[in-house]
């Protein structure tokens, strides 16, 4: 593959990125109290009528606009029951939206334009805390940040959770959100839930709405369906969590070459409770997270405020985006790799945002309480500053705009999958530098879950984040390599997708991968026989009606289809449908 490259340009490009990233790091290390928080994902023309919903990135995978006639904002369970009953009585379609709408697929969308969005924005209260029973009951609109803080007030901790605290309890339950661990019940949040209160459509005798109280002992089938529900069973009102006494963690990051990574990935998760990896395949490096539980009286007051989740200056974000767009236009692979090397070194050198005392990093290990170490997202909890700063992906800022492919590969197949990726990198060492511009490949451990739509086996979850063009018909540099990894994961290794991430093709035939799919669909039919909480998207991914694939010119560029002819790529721009290089069954858009 050729690129417009000269030693002078490469030097200038590296100097530019070095200067810009130094300024960025200085800003994010000191800037913690000013930012522009994200706006509400639901926008209405007049009051709460004639509404649209988007995700926090501003664009769904198919770039469609999701509409509804109204949005409702219940503040109590009683109000929620009344809203669901009124809509059920007239056969109105409903979908739940959350405060930040952080799911990439169209999970918040209802069908047509006459439906109803039910936002849990104001269902954000703690119902009760029981320190003796070590349980905490909250409403479904409570964010992970609130949940962590409320537990800490009574000396308790949620053992595992996602690293981004801007997700809600209902959102985590709807998509199977998780952290990283093979210990205990595993890292999925829903496996630490003991009771769910769900409001679903009811009969005339029920008053058109029914409050269901679900537990593992009294309603096991319904409980295991509701633990990862995709929002098709109704609205989760309240959730009770089983917590643990507060503990501390001792964390150490180590960077190594990836020569034996295919072996280490299989065993490392059994050695450290909160282990994960950041793989930098084009650099041939892996960052190992050695992270373990220690006694609560262990000396240390560390905290983790992950740098990419902090407030960032809009001007810097726009400049970085412009530079990457230029690299894409010029097909400047060397420039991307130079920038990726600089960024990964800077993140590692600044300990990714870890501090030993809440202010500065003085060295490893960093020891801190679970509530200060497990999740972050400080760009959310800030005052308005007129968009001078914001979360990096805020759609109002010309900042990050990306695809995200996330899937879990069984541990028994990890070695082979990693070696397949290494084989691709050997063909062109620059091919995955684009992933390293976005932190690298984050890899987290997950375990099998009794939830019907949860993980089927112990596995390693891969998160790949990469450039997305503003124009859906614009191809990407090394697009074929990323598409081959995506197809290899889902079709060669039968990977399970993350329900709240991914492009359309990740969900092609996905329901067949779940052994308890029929049991889940049976509960869905019982709870909502008219499908009022279902949508075209959920019916497609659940195998009820239709398919997620969208066939049209350029569809493969955005993961709406797998190419079967050149028109599905960008033939006028030199991208044609070709077989994969390692996984020959793949069909990818390759530059020729």
Low-confidence spans: pLDDT under 50, at least 5 residues? 1-11, 29-33
User: What structural class should be given to the helix and strand makeup?
Assistant: alpha+beta
Rg for CA atoms:
23 Å
Overall number of strands: 26
Strand order across the biggest sheet? 19-13-15-14-22-23-21-24
Helix run count? 14
User: Main beta sheet, described?
Assistant: 8 strands, antiparallel
The coarse overall form would be globular
Rounded to the nearest angstrom, the distance between the terminal CA atoms is: 8 Å
Strand fraction equals 15-25%
Helix share of residues?
25-40%
Mean pLDDT: 94
Enzyme class: oxidoreductase
Signal peptide: 1-32
Domain FAD-binding PCMH-type: 64-246
Pathway: Cofactor biosynthesis; L-ascorbate biosynthesis
Give a written overview of the molecule.
The chain has 592 residues and is an alpha+beta fold. The protein has 14 helices and 26 strands. It has helices at residues 7-30, 77-89, 144-153, 169-175, 220-226, 261-271, 314-330, 333-349, 370-373, 414-427, 433-436, 479-492, 517-527, 536-541, and strands at 42-46, 49-53, 66-72, 94-97, 116-119, 126-130, 135-139, 156-157, 193-201, 209-215, 235-242, 244-245, 248-257, 276-280, 285-294, 303-304, 312-313, 354-355, 366-369, 389-390, 402-410, 441-446, 459-467, 496-497, 575-579, 587-591. An eight-stranded antiparallel β-sheet has the order 19-13-15-14-22-23-21-24. Helix 1 (7-30) runs parallel beside helix 8 and helix 6 (261-271) runs antiparallel to helix 10 (414-427).
């Amino acid at each position: 593959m050729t690129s417009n490259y000269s030693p002078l340009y490469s030097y200038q490009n590296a100097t530019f990125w070095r200067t810009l990233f130094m300024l960025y790091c200085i800003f994010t290390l000191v800037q913690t109290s000013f930012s522009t928080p994200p706006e509400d994902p639901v926008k209405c023309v007049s009051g709460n009528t004639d509404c649209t919903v988007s995700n926090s990135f501003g664009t769904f995978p198919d770039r469609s606009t999701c509409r509804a006639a109204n949005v409702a904002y219940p503040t109590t369970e009683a109000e929620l029951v009344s809203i669901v009953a009124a809509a059920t009585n007239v056969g109105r379609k409903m979908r739940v939206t959350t405060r930040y709408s952080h799911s990439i697929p169209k999970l918040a969308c209802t069908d047509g334009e006459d439906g109803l969005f039910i936002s849990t924005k104001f269902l954000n209260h703690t119902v009760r805390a029981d320190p003796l029973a070590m349980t905490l009951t909250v409403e479904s609109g409570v964010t992970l940040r609130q949940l962590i803080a409320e537990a800490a007030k009574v000396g308790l901790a949620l053992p595992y959770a996602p690293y981004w605290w801007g997700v809600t309890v209902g959102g985590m339950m709807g998509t199977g959100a998780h952290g990283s661990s093979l210990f205990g019940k595993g890292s999925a949040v829903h496996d630490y839930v003991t009771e769910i209160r769900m409001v679903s459509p009811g009969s005339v005798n029920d008053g058109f709405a029914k409050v269901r109280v679900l537990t593992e002992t009294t309603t096991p089938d319904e409980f295991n369906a509701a633990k990862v529900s995709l929002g098709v069973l109704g609205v989760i009102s309240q959730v009770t969590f089983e917590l643990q006494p507060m503990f501390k963690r001792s964390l150490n990051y180590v960077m190594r070459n990836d020569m034996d990574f295919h072996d280490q990935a299989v065993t490392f998760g059994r050695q450290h409770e909160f282990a994960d990896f950041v793989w930098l395949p084009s650099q041939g490096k892996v960052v190992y997270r050695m992270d373990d539980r220690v006694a609560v009286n262990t000396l240390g007051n560390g905290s983790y405020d992950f740098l990419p989740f902090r407030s960032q200056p809009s001007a810097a974000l726009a400049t970085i985006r412009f530079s990457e767009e230029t690299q894409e236009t010029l097909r400047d692979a060397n420039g991307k790799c130079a920038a990726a090397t600089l960024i990964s070194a800077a993140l590692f050198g600044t300990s990714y945002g870890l501090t030993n005392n809440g202010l500065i990093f003085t060295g490893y290990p960093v020891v801190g309480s679970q509530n200060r170490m497990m999740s972050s997202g400080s760009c959310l909890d800030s005052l308005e500053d007129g968009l001078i700063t914001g979360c990096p992906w805020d759609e109002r800022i010309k900042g990050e705009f990306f695809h995200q492919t996330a899937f879990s590969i069984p541990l028994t197949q990890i070695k082979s999958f990693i070696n397949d990726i290494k084989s691709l990198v050997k063909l062109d060492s620059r091919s995955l530098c684009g992933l390293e511009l976005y932190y690298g490949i984050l890899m987290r451990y997950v375990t099998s879950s009794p939830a019907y739509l949860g993980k089927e086996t112990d596995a390693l979850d891969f998160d790949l984040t990469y450039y997305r063009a503003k124009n859906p018909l614009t191809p990407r540099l090394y697009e074929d390599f990323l598409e081959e990894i995506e197809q290899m994961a889902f079709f060669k290794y039968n990977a399970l997708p993350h329900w709240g991430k991914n492009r359309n093709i990740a969900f092609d035939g996905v329901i067949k991968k779940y052994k308890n799919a029929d049991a889940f669909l049976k509960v869905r039919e019982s709870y909502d026989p008219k499908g009022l909480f279902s949508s075209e998207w959920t019916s497609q991914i659940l195998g009820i009606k239709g398919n997620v694939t969208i066939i049209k010119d350029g569809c493969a560029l955005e993961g709406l289809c797998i190419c079967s002819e050149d028109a599905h790529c960008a033939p006028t721009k030199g991208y044609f449908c070709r077989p994969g290089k390692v996984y020959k069954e793949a069909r990818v858009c390759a530059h020729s």
